[in-house]
Design goal:
By secondary structure, the protein is α+β, with helices and mostly antiparallel strands. Helix content is 27%, strand content 19%. The protein has 2 domains: 55 residues, no CATH class; 47 residues, no CATH class.
Amino acid sequence: MGALPVYRWRLASDGLATRRQLRALGLRPGGQDVAAQVERPRRRRDPLVAYLYRIDTAKPVRPMTPAKWAALAKANAARRICPECRRDAGYVIPPALGMCTPGRLSRRTARRISPVGGPGHTPPTALAGPYSREGVLTA
């Protein structure tokens, strides 16, 4: 394969598009090779590179089959079910949280209201530090 034509940012010729631009037009590259590339310069780093494809040889996007729609709906539904309380949260649960907000709040409350001597309980003497219960310095 020969060298690709390289264009500067926003200066590519007409008739070329990135994958996202093709998708916005309802097209896909369809197995064609990269026709050119665009480089966006950055300070003190290598330039960002975007590959361009010819629009006239792009093919239409394949439509989703009913089986694909069903699989997508099932996957999205699984992202909404809380692993702690097994309820539909009504929104996609962020992976960083790992559970729905009510489940997270109930778990936090359960830790705060744990019985004396139970897990999560801190004796008052450990909280006092160098002070006695009256707040007078003892050490």
